[in-house]
Design brief:
GO terms for molecular function: triose-phosphate isomerase activity. Substrate binds at residues 14-16, 176, 209, 230-231. Its main location: cytoplasm. Helix 1 (21-31) crosses helix 10 (236-243). Strands 1-2-3-4-5-6-7-8 form an eight-stranded parallel β-barrel, surrounded by five helices. The protein contains ten helices and eight strands. It is of the alpha/beta class and 248 residues long. It binds 1,3-dihydroxyacetonephosphate. Residues 14, 101, 170, 175-176, 207-210, 228-232 line the site of 1,3-dihydroxyacetonephosphate.
């Protein structure tokens, strides 16, 4: 199957809880020159900690990079210590927001229901949510991968506009472990995810130990439209190699 041109290539760096503002400036000095070689039509997104957003939005103005956030609360404002709202993000130049990352589900009590609320709110404020789904090693070994992901999609995507959405398949056992899901297997799961969507043109990423040495093979898969990168997005040279992947 050939990739339809309407499915955008979306490459995002999830910086998690890494990089001060000074470290962010340093990263940009090394990274930005590489974007001159980036082929047209690739969406490049950086999702830094909140404190880096305004620095980045000033520096990145006019560049190819779009800004993403790592969380959004479902209320516009209120007594929600530690949370951040849609208007705060859009004011900082944010266009995308990661929702339902496995680290939020695992450590911060995120459920499919709260994921759905956050997705709705992101869209309400004109942001494009990146919904993360994926199974643990235990669930994979028990043969539950397909049913678990199907449930995450069913509940997460309730009443969500699929024309303004990115999905990331991130098998939890492949995150930060150096153990990548085989490209062919990631392609299979992403195909299954697509078959459950009402809009077949949603861009679907793979995430989990994406590195310069496996990016070309991953992006050669027909169902995979991009990547969500953790560790390898923190270093300018390695993220540049990923963004400038070569088509096989
Ligand atoms: O969680 C991830 C991106 O959201 C993946 O992290 P790693 O690339 O470090 O495995």
């Amino acid at each position: 199957m050939t990739k339809l041109p309407v499915r955008k290539i979306v490459i995002a760096g999830n910086w998690k809880m890494y990089k001060t503002q000074a470290e962010t400036q340093e990263f940009l000095r090394g990274f930005l020159p590489h974007l001159e070689e980036t082929p047209q039509g690739r969406e490049v997104i950086l999702c830094p900690p909140f404190t880096d957003l305004s620095v980045l939005s000033k520096t990145l103005h006019g560049s190819l990079i779009q800004l993403g956030a790592q969380n959004i609360h479902w209320e516009e404002y209120g007594a929600y210590t530690g949370e951040i709202s849609g208007p705060m993000l859009t004011e900082s130049g944010v266009r995308f927001v990661i929702v339902g990352h496995s680290e939020r589900r695992q450590y911060f009590g995120e459920t499919d229901a709260t994921v759905n609320l956050r997705l709705r709110t992101a869209q309400r404020f004109g942001l494009t949510p990146i919904l993360c789904v994926g199974e643990t090693k235990q669930q994979r070994d028990a043969g539950e991968t397909e049913s678990l992901i199907s449930l995450q999609l069913d509940k997460g995507l309730l009443d969500i506009d699929q024309s303004n959405l990115v999905i990331a398949y991130e098998p939890i056992w492949a995150i930060g472990t150096g153990e990548t899901c085989e490209a062919v297997e990631a392609n299979r799961i992403i195909g299954l995810i697509r078959s459950q969507l009402s809009n077949a043109n949603v861009s679907i990423q793979y995430g989990g130990s994406v590195k310069p040495n496996n990016i070309d093979e991953i992006m050669a898969q027909p169902e995979i439209d991009g990547v969500l990168v953790g560790g390898a997005s923190l270093e300018a040279e390695s993220f540049a190699r990923i963004v400038n992947f070569q088509s096989l």
